[in-house]
Amino acid sequence: MDPMDRKTVKRRFEREAIRESNKRVRTAEILLEWNRRSRNQAQEDGCDRVDSDEESDRGLGEAEDVGNGNNSNAEEQENEGEGIDVQAMEGERCREAESNSSRSSELDGSDDNFNDLPESDNEPEPVQHPNNYVREQLSEWALCGGVSMSKVDDLLKRLQPIHQNLPLSYKTLLKTPRNVHVVDCGNGSLWYYGIAPQLHRHLTQEYLLRHDVIAIDINIDSVPLFNKSSTNFVPILGKLVDSSEPFIIGIFCGTGSDPADLDTFLHNYVQEVNNLKSNGFQYEEKTWKFRTRHYILDQKARASIKCVKGVRGYFCCEKCTVKGTDYMNRMCLLNHDCQLRTDENFIDMASLQMMPRSEHFEDTEIDRHVIGISLLLSCESKMVSKFRLDSMHMVYKGVFLRWFEFLWSGHGSYSLGRRQKQDISLKLGSFRPFCPSDFNRKPFAIKSEKLKATELRRILLYDGLLVFRKLDKNIFLNFMLLHTAIYILCSPKYHKTLNHEADRFIRAFVNHAENLFGQQFIVYNVHSMIHLPSECFDHGPLDTFGAFPYENLLGKIKSQVTSRYKPLQQIAKREMEKVNKSENTVKPEKPLLQMPSVNDPHEQLVGQQYKKIRFRKTVLSVKKADSCCALQDGTIICITNIVSSENGPIIVGKRFAAMSDYYQYPICSSLLNVYKVKQLEERSFYLTLEDISHKCYLMPLDTQEFYAVVVFTDQSCQAIPTSWLDEEDGQLIAFYPKTFWKDHKVRKAIENCANRNPDTFDKHWNVRVLHYYNSLIVARNNLKKAEGTSSLDSENDVMPPRRKRKRESFDSTDNSDDSDDDEKKTRSKHPAPPQFQKALQQKIKNNHITQQTSKSRESPSRSPSTVGIFPHDMVECDLFEDDDSWSAVTPLRGSGSNVASTSSASDTDIVKKFGRTSVLVKSTLSQAELMTMLSIQMEMRTKLERMERMLSTVMRSVKPSQKLVLPKDIPNLPLQTQEEFDGNENFLADSANRSDTSEYLATFINMNMKLKDQTYTILRKCLADNLASQYNWKGRDKKAFCSTNLCSALFGAILDCNKNSQVNMAEVEGAP
């Protein structure tokens, strides 16, 4: 650019700045003049005092200019040209506020709607000086982020004529340091703030009372600053153990993802850690011990900081000495039983890096993992045991995302079709109304496999149980292995008690995934999952050493960068400004009632009723998403009302009547407190917050109808989502996009179940619903017929062509009650996963109950930190439509009287709106409940044995020749494994037992059946599929069945049933 052009541009900017400054000054003068005239007009009208609400409507700063007793004096000072004495007038106002305590402050900013809420912790503290209050609030607002400092300067200049104690620059307001010490670090710059200043800021008395040693976790990760730029931040973050707020220790800013000079990058940190470990940390005249607990980094950062091989190295595993195989341009780690690495072994490998290389040294395995000497060794000796395998990067964004990508965009027989992708997307979108507010990212209809880590975690632990149910059976069972293992390791309750089972499930998942997807699936992240159970057993649940809190801070750091000019100095100044603004106090948490509702006339409790309550970072509400929770005794309830009382809020809810297992592979879901429950009871329960143990997650099953074929008033038909239907004044209405919408946009909105927007949607009255469907494709197929018939009865529905009926299999190890999909015994084209014995499941259950019982004896009281925290325990439930209004007779908890009440109209509306609905809920059974269930089970077993003996005695007198009692000591049928089959053979070796078994099996067939069907029925009763597939009649390429004792018992049963007819044994041999 020409020098003259530069001067011209500079002069133009200067002129614009002068004009802006003059404009602000003129605006302030106009406001002052207008305020003066307003006061004169009010005085002429006889208004002696102006209320604060009127003052706030007149102009900027009016509430600060008008005193309650000095209006005339202020006006005289303005008329004389002496200006306004703001400080004197505000002092007068403060004195009046102190003398009249019944009046609320004009500047407290509180909402009158919440003044009467009980036990609220959001009431502002009394302000002694309004100007100081404004200054403090402005500084806190400026430090929250999301606002540029130029905007803060502009606001201060606008407020300064009225609030003369406010500075004109944000630097004075926030006490911004003038200089920031930044050092060169290879390919960038480094700003190191330190651990000690952050500890002084974040330590609280409550934390020091619970801990004897100050322990922190360290995280190092990179974050890009701008689009289409190679500038990155690599911050060193820390977090106090058992705290949720991380802090900044230092930041590197440069080109490239990693610092080129690692020694300079780590030098200040290593020096401070050594100082704190040797001398301790001085806080409030006391020396506290200091230590670092975990280093939580992703694999790339761990390899860089530790100076070890990356994921493309042959010896890249950080926990064992497995050697990888280069396969299809990937490093695959196929051996899962190698020797584990230790801290001592790592130090030995690092020390060998200083020795001269030799041929023998090159051939050893030691040189192939450690490739250098890390400066971190000077302060940390545990370079293996202190570095955690981060669940966010390794499990959710690593293994599960890879599993999902293979299905979504893979090229094998396992890849999903277009219709399957659409069903998965629609199913996820349908979960959005049921997703609790505890999840920051709600489910939505996905378009690709690119998902965030929090979304992947939610799908793996919650949504996937229903989303992937319609996949190929063996692929779904492979997902269940991963889900169950990670579910156990994430649980604070089961990560130790069921740790061995989680290890077995992970190994089974890895081996089965190799058979499904090939060797290219077993990369570094998949192999490293083998070491997760031991990590959780030694260091706690999986989420305690995840990177989610640090990722949130990285996002805040990035949002504070407002320009490309010196981004490192910007973050450093913002962080140093927070030192004088923090408070090392923790306010006691009290329940906060929100959203007052119209009192239910059927509610017998006296008090204001509410729709929502906040307590310990958890929201409970009468809405479907936040209404379900588990009680201390294991009961699952849905909240219907919240009533305030003198002793605290009272929760009104109804519980589910029935609970059963949702799945039985790889273990019974009841062991993990995953249940299928159905039918809410009519009675209501009155509870307190102390009675609630966990919040629950309800999810719809496939029986819910998401789409409806409706007829509008112009006799046109359309398939729309059920969320577009509503009811007003007893009439059914439908929302539909306005006429300016293009056809493809309307189709896309219907497929995605888009939210109905009153601005872009028309409301259609008196619509008629022809039929409900759970699939948009089926609804559109029936739509063509509805346009001609205007009727879609069940017999008129478009039905797919009938298929040839397949013969049912012998038996399945999956005995779940999901009759919709799981009971379709179709043969899978993919290899099956390993089976787990039911006897082992019962052994796990008994061991689990025993461990919980011993634990309850050691610590009978429940930890208060678990109350109100949303767990990942899940329950599934069904809601059924009831045509009549609900009513209940409920005993009030804590009293002996019964209070009769009926449910509110909203409860009935919810049930009728969703129709037959299935829901997934998350819950936890208490230890006392488990023991109670065990005692009830033993009592029921004793009673059943007694009834069996009584029935046997009665039947002998009625039918002496017929024996209906189960033979004594007969093994459980059907037989599942070869061991059970051998035990049954030993049992049938006795002729008496064989005769009794034949008579027992004969009761399952009759003479009207063909011999093939009789044989098939008995075999299905006796053998499971996996065991029956190992036998044929004469033993060709398999085991021979004709020579077994069970075959003799089968012949005896057929002969007993066909005593009066001739039996053709060749027909028996030809049975399947």
Structural write-up:
The chain has 1072 residues and is an alpha+beta fold. Among the domains are: 110 residues, no CATH class; 129 residues, no CATH class; 158 residues, no CATH class; 162 residues, no CATH class; 83 residues, no CATH class; 104 residues. 39% of the residues lie in helices and 16% in strands. A hairpin with a 4-residue loop joins strand 7 and strand 8. Helix 15 packs across helix 17, helix 18 packs antiparallel against helix 19 and helix 19 packs antiparallel against helix 21. It is globular. About 18% of the residues have low confidence.
Per-chain topology:
Elements: H1 3-44, H2 52-58, H3 62-65, H4 71-79, H5 86-99, H6 130-143, H7 149-159, H8 170-174, E1 183-185, E2 188-192, H9 196-202, H10 205-210, E3 213-220, E4 223-224, E5 231-240, E6 247-255, H11 262-279, E7 281-282, E8 287-297, H12 299-306, E9 325-327, E10 330-332, H13 343-352, H14 359-363, E11 387-389, H15 391-409, H16 418-430, H17 453-467, H18 473-490, H19 499-517, H20 524-528, H21 532-539, H22 548-559, H23 567-577, E12 592-596, E13 609-615, E14 618-621, E15 628-631, E16 636-643, E17 650-661, E18 675-680, E19 685-687, E20 692-695, E21 707-711, E22 717-721, E23 725-728, E24 731-737, H24 743-751, E25 761-764, E26 768-773, H25 776-789, H26 838-858, E27 875-879, E28 887-891, E29 898-902, H27 905-914, E30 917-921, H28 927-958, H29 978-988, H30 991-1002, H31 1011-1022, H32 1025-1028, E31 1031-1032, E32 1039-1040, H33 1045-1057, H34 1065-1069
Parallel strand pairs: 3-8, 8-11, 18-27, 31-32
Antiparallel strand pairs: 1-2, 2-6, 3-5, 4-5, 5-6, 7-8, 9-10, 12-13, 13-14, 13-16, 15-16, 15-20, 16-17, 17-18, 17-19, 21-22, 21-26, 23-24, 24-25, 27-30, 28-29
Helix pairs in contact: 15-17, 17-18, 18-19, 19-21, 26-28, 30-33
